[in-house]
Write a structure and sequence with these properties.
disordered N terminus; single chain; alpha/beta; 356 residues; TIM Barrel
C-alpha cells in the first residue's frame, strides 16, 4: 500500500515528498527545469456538473468525489494564500466541474479577493444559474468570466449537453456583462459533423453581443476515452472557415503564457482566439499550476502524476512545508504534454475531475 493510500503525504506516480532534487535552485517561485515560472493557478472546486456534454462525460454522469474528500472552503483558501504569498501566483481561476454548484462559492471568492497582494480572479462556468448570481460574483471579487457555449441552436445544445438549457446560458452571459464582468469570454469546442458549421455564426453573434470568442480544439480528456485525432476539428480548419467571412490578422499584443492565439477581426478592435493545444501546443510558455477539488496538485493538464496536498494539509504540515512540496512538484514538470508521442496515455481523470 502506498503512502498516498494510507493518507500520508506523497506523490501519486512519483518519488515521495521530502526528497529534494539537488539541482533545484533555492528560488521561492514555481520554477521548472525548462525555465518556466508558474504564476497562474487553476483551482477546481467540484467535479460535479449539471450538464452532460457528449465530449466530456456519459449521459448517466460519473461517480462524484465524496464531499469529505473534497477540500473544505478553509483548505482551499489556505492553499491559494500559500500560492499567492509564498509562490508568486498572480492569477487564480476557479473551475470545475461546474463551480457554480460549489456551496460557499461567493465566500471563497471574497476571501481570495481580500488577499494582499490581490490575485486576478476569474471563473469558468457553463452559465447555468449565472443570471441570478452574476452581480454577487462581481461583488465577491470575480474580475472576468469564461462561459462554455458550443452552439446557438437550441436543438443542438440539447443534443450536445443532453439538457435543454441554452436560454439560461445566454441570459447568464448577458447578466455577467451587465454586472461589469467584461469581456465575457466564450469557449467553444467544434465537433466534426455536429456543430462544425457554426464557426462563422458563433463569431458574428459574439461580435454583435460584445463577447470575446475562443475556439478550443477538442482534447483527449473525455471520461469515455473515446477521443480520436482524426475526428478533431483543427485550428487550421477553424481559421480557414472564419476567413471565408472575416479578415483575420495576428493580434500584435504579446501572447506570453496565454493559451489562446488571438486574431484581430476585420482590423479590430474585436478579436477571436484559438486554443490549439493539440496541433499548435504552447507548452514552452506554459505558466499554469493546477489543483483538483480533492486537493491533488497537477503540473500539467495531461499529467499522469499528482502531488497530494490534501494529505499535507490534514497531516499538520506548515505553510512552508506545503509550499516547498509545491515547488518540488513543479520543478519535476515535463517539457510538454506529449500528445504527439506514440506512447501518449490519456490521463486517468477526465476534464471534469481535473478542472479546466
Amino acid at each position: 500500500m502506498s503512502a498516498t493510500e494510507l493518507g500520508l503525504p506523497g506523490i501519486r506516480g512519483a518519488k515521495p515528498l521530502g526528497v529534494r532534487d539537488p539541482a533545484r535552485p533555492d528560488d521561492p517561485r514555481l520554477i521548472d527545469r525548462f525555465g518556466r515560472v508558474a504564476t497562474d493557478l487553476r483551482v477546481s472546486l467540484t467535479d460535479r456538473c449539471n450538464l452532460r456534454c457528449t465530449y466530456c462525460m456519459p449521459a448517466e454522469g460519473l461517480d462524484w468525489t465524496p464531499r469529505d474528500e473534497l477540500l473544505s472552503d478553509d483548505e482551499i483558501v489556505r492553499l491559494v494564500t500559500i500560492a499567492v504569498r509564498r509562490l508568486g501566483v498572480e492569477e487564480v481561476r476557479f473551475t470545475g466541474g461546474e463551480p457554480l454548484l460549489r456551496r460557499g462559492l461567493e465566500s471563497i471568492l471574497a476571501r481570495v479577493s481580500a488577499l494582499r497582494p490581490r490575485p486576478e480572479i476569474s471563473l469558468t462556468t457553463n452559465a447555468i444559474g449565472l443570471a441570478r448570481r452574476a452581480r454577487g460574483l462581481a461583488d465577491a471579487g470575480v474580475d472576468r468570466l469564461n462561459v462554455s457555449l458550443d452552439t446557438l441552436r437550441p436543438e443542438r445544445f440539447a443534443t450536445i449537453t443532453r439538457r435543454d438549457r441554452i436560454t439560461d446560458v445566454l441570459d447568464g452571459m448577458a447578466a455577467a456583462r451587465a454586472a461589469g464582468l467584461d469581456p465575457v469570454k466564450v469557449n467553444t469546442v467544434l465537433l466534426r459533423g455536429v456543430n462544425d458549421d457554426e464557426a462563422v455564426p458563433l463569431l458574428r453573434y459574439c461580435l454583435d453581443a460584445g463577447y470575446e470568442l475562443r475556439f478550443i480544439e477538442q482534447m483527449p480528456l473525455d471520461a469515455q476515452h473515446g477521443w480520436q485525432r482524426t475526428e478533431m476539428v483543427t485550428a487550421a480548419e477553424i481559421l480557414s472557415r472564419l476567413r471565408e467571412a472575416f479578415v483575420l490578422t495576428p493580434d500584435p499584443t504579446e501572447r506570453a503564457g496565454a493559451p489562446a492565439e488571438r486574431w484581430l477581426v476585420d482590423g479590430g478592435p474585436s478579436v477571436v482566439g484559438v486554443i490549439a493545444s493539440v496541433t499548435r501546443p504552447f507548452c514552452g510558455a506554459c505558466d499554469r499550476t493546477r489543483l483538483t477539488g480533492d486537493g491533488q496538485l497537477r503540473s500539467c493538464l495531461f499529467a499522469r502524476t499528482e502531488t497530494d496536498l490534501r494529505a499535507l494539509l490534514r497531516g499538520g504540515s506548515t505553510d512552508e512545508e506545503i509550499a516547498d512540496a509545491w515547488r518540488g512538484a513543479m520543478w519535476a514538470k515535463l517539457a510538454g504534454h506529449g500528445i504527439d508521442d506514440p506512447n501518449f496515455l490519456q490521463p486517468d481523470r477526465p476534464m471534469s475531475a481535473i478542472g479546466g
